[in-house]
Amino acid sequence: QVVTVERFSGIKSHLAIKDLTTGVPSLLTSIQKRMFERAKKDLDANIHVIEKWEDGFVRKLDEKGLVLVPWCEREACEEHIKKRSANESEVAEEDEKAPSM
Questions:
Q1: Can you tell me the distance from the alpha carbon of 30 to that of 26, in angstroms, rounded to the nearest whole number?
Q2: Distances (CA, A) of 16 to 9, 22, 23, 28
Q3: Phi, psi (5° rounding) for residue 13?
Q4: For residues 27 and 43, what is the distance between their CA atoms, to the nearest angstrom?
Q5: C-alpha count within 13 angstroms, C-beta hemisphere, residue 72
Q6: Confidence of residue 11 (pLDDT cuts 50, 70, 90)
Q7: How many Å apart are CA 13 and CA 30, to the nearest integer?
Q8: DSSP 94
Q9: Cα–Cα distance for residue pair 80/10, rounded to 1 Å
Q10: Residue 52 and residue 15: Cα distance in Å, rounded?
Q11: DSSP for 18-86, written as a single string
Q12: Gap between the Cα atoms of 60 and 65, Å rounded
């Protein structure tokens, strides 16, 4: 008998040696599915639609969130957003890092 332990969940299971060729692929498929579902849930929980700057653009970035914002598709707008968010982050900085851009 073989004992398996899933690192991400700590779940232990036992497989008979004669069942390894079918049990391991099945176990790996199950692990991958659960890891993907957990990652997708975490991603979805951290996506924030921001319509106005005041809705928390910098705060959500500082919280390591992903923000979806309207954009005029001009490089000048992108540069303005970078500068403004970096300035606001420096004023209310908690972890001494500007939001990633």
A1: 6
A2: 21, 10, 9, 16
A3: -145, 165
A4: 24
A5: 8
A6: very high
A7: 13
A8: S
A9: 46
A10: 55
A11: GGHHHHHHHHHHHHHHHHHHHHHHHHHHTEEE-SSGGGTHHHHHHTT-EEE----S-HHHHHHHHHHHH
A12: 5
Average pLDDT, the chain: 88
Q: What is the sign of the dihedral through the CA atoms of 82, 86, 89 and 91?
A: negative
Alpha-carbon distance of 53 to 81, in angstroms, equals 10
Alpha carbon separation from 36 to 13, 39, 41 (Å, rounded): 20, 5, 8
Query: Is the separation of the CB atoms in 68 and 48 below 8 Å?
Result: yes
Q: What are the φ and ψ backbone dihedral angles of 48, each rounded to 5 degrees?
A: -125, 125
Using a pLDDT cut of 70, give the percent of the chain over it.
Answer: 88
Q: Which residue has the tokens 């303005």?
A: 80
**Model-level pTM?**
0.66
